[in-house]
């Protein structure tokens, strides 16, 4: 269950604050494998010995670079801040900060916990989104009311567009899992009957509503035809279950640039066609399918994740 929402960033409640782990930002596969194979001391020695060697971009690096680039486009938009949360120590984390400096990323705040969980620092930093390779940290952040996703570490994907493109599943991500529960427990027929009967009722909010709204605030500073951000709803829903979704987003005053109602089709090829920098879904199956095409984050929330929240 989601608790009270995270507080806004101190000093400016219009900021979009994203917290990210070092393994999501950079490709740390070699050193992490060494840690698992040989232990902490070997890992520490390796990182110190290589701290001046550049790290390759990780799976979320393009997303972070595009988020920070938004600060350069207009003084009228809410400022974007990226916070580094890492289980490294300050000693081993120096290599990560060296890489941040090398790539010219405007990341100045960080927490290095020396093996301890990082999630307790998500709220004090005022983050609206948390991305990490550690499932436990993600699950605890979600329970604290912060949009969060587990992102599997890998090398950065190659994308040609400068536009930031983010895609979301609907049920249990933007919206609550209320309708998805009916589908899983009573079948697709009961689900469609439920959605038709309640078509005029707003859908309850899910964990990513606040993050989507903050993105929309930034979008609103630009004309729709030349916005640096493009969003998409990519859902297994199909007609007639589309109406309630559209009316809810309209009532929230949130613009979603593209809405794909796939009726159960695999999402991966459609996300590739959209060119998503990242996709968020509560279904591990959907995330695995999408990850072959785009960076994907698993949201361990709702009926699809019993015992994992």
What does this protein structure show overall?
With 309 residues, the protein is of the alpha/beta class. The chain has 2 domains: 16-151, Rossmann fold (3-Layer(aba) Sandwich), CATH 3.40.50; 164-298, 3-Layer(aba) Sandwich (Rossmann fold). It is 36% helix and 16% strand. It contains 12 helices and 10 strands. It has a 10-stranded mixed beta sheet. The longest helix is centred in the first third of the chain and has 13 residues, at 90-102. The radius of gyration is 19 Å and the shape is globular. The termini are close together. Mean pLDDT is 89; it is low at 1-11.
Topology:
Blueprint: E1 16-21, H1 22-25, H2 29-38, H3 40-49, H4 61-69, E2 80-86, H5 90-102, E3 110-112, E4 129-132, H6 135-143, E5 147-151, E6 164-168, H7 178-186, H8 188-197, H9 209-219, E7 229-235, H10 242-252, E8 258-261, H11 268-274, E9 278-281, H12 284-291, E10 296-298
Parallel strand pairs: 1-2, 1-4, 2-3, 4-5, 6-7, 6-9, 7-8, 9-10
Antiparallel strand pairs: 5-10
Helix pairs in contact: 2-3, 3-5, 7-8, 11-12
């Amino acid at each position: 269950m989601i608790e009270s929402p995270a507080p806004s960033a101190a000093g400016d409640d219009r900021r979009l604050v994203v917290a990210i782990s070092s393994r999501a930002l950079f490709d740390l596969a070699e050193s992490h494998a060494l840690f698992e194979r040989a232990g902490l001391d070997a890992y520490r020695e390796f990182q110190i010995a290589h701290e001046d060697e550049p790290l390759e971009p990780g799976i979320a690096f393009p997303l972070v670079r595009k988020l920070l680039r938004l600060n350069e486009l207009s003084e009228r938009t809410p400022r974007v801040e990226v916070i580094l949360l890492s289980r490294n120590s300050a000693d081993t984390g120096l290599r990560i900060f060296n890489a941040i400096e090398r790539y010219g990323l405007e990341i100045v705040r960080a927490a290095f916990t020396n093996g301890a969980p990082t999630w307790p620092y998500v709220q004090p930093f005022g983050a609206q989104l948390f991305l990490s390779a550690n499932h436990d940290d993600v699950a605890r952040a979600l329970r604290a009311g912060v949009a969060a996703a587990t992102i599997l570490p890998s090398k950065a994907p190659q994308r040609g567009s400068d536009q930031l493109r983010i895609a979301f599943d609907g049920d249990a991500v933007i919206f609550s899992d209320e309708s998805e529960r009916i589908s899983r427990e009573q079948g697709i027929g009961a689900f469609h009957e439920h959605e038709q009967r309640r078509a005029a009722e707003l859908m309850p909010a899910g964990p990513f509503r606040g993050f989507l709204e903050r993105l929309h605030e930034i979008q609103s500073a630009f004309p729709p035809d030349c916005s640096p951000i493009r969003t998409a709803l990519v859902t297994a829903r199909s007609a007639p279950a589309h109406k309630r979704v559209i009316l809810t987003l309209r009532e929230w005053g949130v613009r979603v640039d593209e809405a794909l109602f796939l009726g159960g089709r695999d999402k991966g090829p459609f996300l590739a066609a959209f060119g998503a920098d990242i996709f968020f879904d509560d279904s591990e199956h959907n995330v695995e399918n999408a990850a072959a095409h785009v960076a994907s984050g698993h949201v361990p929330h709702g009926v699809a994740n019993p015992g994992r929240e």
